[in-house]
Amino acid sequence: MSISTKPYKNSDSSKKEQVSKMFDNISKNYDNLNRVISFGIDIKWRKKILKMVSIKKPKNILDIATGTGDLAILLSQSSAEKIIGLDISEGMLEVGRQKINQKVLSDKIEMKLGDSENIPFEDNTFDCITVAFGIRNFENLEKGLAEILRVLKPNGLFVILETSVPEKFPFKQGYNFYTKQIMPFIGKLFSKDKDAYQYLADSASIFPYGKNLNNILSKIGFIDVKHLPQTFGVATIYSASKK
After folding, report:
1. Which of 18, 5, 35, 16 is nearest to 190 (CA)?
2. Are residues 15 and 2 in contact, defined by beta-carbon separation less than 8 angstroms?
3. Are 14 and 139 in contact (CB under 8 A)?
4. b vs e for 107-120, b when ≥16 Cβ sit within 10 Å of the residue's Cβ?
5. Pair 201, 216: CB distance under 8 Å
6. What is the per-residue pLDDT across 1-59, written as a single tens digit (0 to 9) for each?
7. What are φ and ψ of residue 204, in 5° steps?
8. Angle at 90 between CA 88 and CA 96, to 5 degrees
9. Largest separation between any pair of C-alpha atoms in the chain
């Protein structure tokens, strides 16, 4: 399954190439701009993931689409001895490495350039795998999820944090106005890449969420699939495991 929208509609390059270029372009301003656009609520959602992961007491964690490493850094508070952050944007990874060095976490967290649809690890490697605001950027969603299932250990934990669309009035209407009008406007004001935040809004609006994503995860082979809407449904946390 491919999520059809791309960052640069006038380019013939693949979605994967465009996403990598987009995040390279916005990497320097991404953290600050993300806090503004989300009103900082995303920090609360990530803390919920930390709590879910900590219960499982994993020894190693793979954080896919790690970006600048916010979730990987937070997960260092868990029992994990090793955390690997994987991303296709070297620009985002470099910002993440600087943050990790400042927090003296380089012995625990490794930032690695790699493709989520061709994960460079052996089968059954990780106790826990996380993805925060990354799976809607996969070029082929089912292929990426199948790769995640492959490298997850049996009985391991897979957690997704992703945007979703509120279904109740007036939150749905407010969300649509904010993501289609306000968010791209803020992005254009503060980012040199005017297409990036329009793409992030567009991709969020068409991505399968809730039970639809649950069904895809189950189809791929995940078990114990659950979803927990957050903040009136503007985001959702999903959890799943492997036989």
Report:
1. 35
2. yes
3. yes
4. ebbebeebbbbebe
5. no
6. 555 688 887 788 899 999 999 999 989 888 888 787 888 899 999 999 999 999 999 99
7. -65, -35
8. 105
9. 48
| Tokens read off for 192 | 């040199």
pTM as predicted = 0.93
Residue 135 tokens read as: 């799976």
DSSP at 120: S
Instruction: Using alpha carbons only, give the angle 125, 240, 65 rounded to the nearest 5 degrees.
Output: 60
* CB-based contact 81:60 (threshold 8 Å): yes
Structure tokens at 184: 């791209």
**Residue the block writes with tokens 């803390």:** 47
Whether 218 and 225 have beta carbons less than 8 Å apart is answered as: yes
Residue 226 three-state SS: strand
Kindly tell me if the per-residue pLDDT of 221 is higher than 80. yes
Which pair of structure tokens corresponds to residue 188?
A: 């254009």
Q: Tell me the three state secondary structure of residue 31.
A: helix
* Two tokens, residue 193: 């890449």
